[in-house]
Amino acid sequence: MAMQANTPGGAMAGGQTAGRQPGAPRWHAASAPTRFAEAGGVRYAYRSLGVEGGVPLVMVNRFRGTMDDWDPAFLDRIAARRHVLIFDNACVARSGGEASPRLTGWADSAATFIAALGHDRVDLLGFSFGGLVAQEMTLRRPDLVRRLVIVGSGAGYVEGANLQAKAIEVATRPVNTDEDFLYLFFKDTPTSQAAGRAHLARLRERADAFAALVSEATWKAMLSAGSDVGTPETSLLRRVGAITQPVLVANGNEDVMIPTFQSYALAQAIPNARLVIYPDSGHAFMFQYPEAFGDEVLRFLEDDALP
Questions:
Q1: How far apart are CA 93 and CA 214, in angstroms?
Q2: How do the domains of the chain map onto residue ranges?
Q3: What is the pLDDT of residues 27-49, one digit of tens each?
């Protein structure tokens, strides 16, 4: 395994910052350097936030999502108390390799990345398509996952609650505008739309934001992988009963990408799951409520009463 860091101004190679106080967060989302780890013939791009040590929280991103799409306010809220790892999976944006057309391929690639950093136990947060990947990885590698957070996601196929044609059409446009994003990720109310615009502004705080995007070939592979759980026979609802870890399922109350009822169905099917629904929000509710949901995630991860 080989590692490399791109260190922006003010940071020194090796992940140290001049004058950093012991115990203070190592990096904030807007300034964390992009590092690289090689494993299985793939060069993975990643960023490490917060204070390293303990069980890290690894975040698995959405359809067409890169590291730059995580809201810095949400990341920093969690990283104030936890070690957080975000990464681009194989063939996504800054990472190399090939994009798998199978969901198992995406799950195995995420597990390979985690192993490349030397971790044998992690907490996992999956958003949207990343939620499917996180569930698949937990089923394939239960030894690796301590606790699981499934955000704005579902089970693939759920009777009466599947992806709508307009959402698919907008999500698969060659280039998405801010208006596309606001439609897909935030509720059509003044408050939610305003929160969406504030979120988009925060994403642009990073100097190198969106320097690399997801190629059409890669996002088409994501679509193919998602179809692996897209029928009544292949739905994750048939398998997630085998997940024994504590699970937090959360969504906005009106998700036009993955209907909110999918979150309810998933929480019903997983034995040790809890469900949280946020008001006046959609697919990216956690970016509308970054502090509130960040605290919710921390409470869940730090709850000693859970097995």
A1: 5
A2: 26-302
A3: 889 999 999 999 999 999 999 99
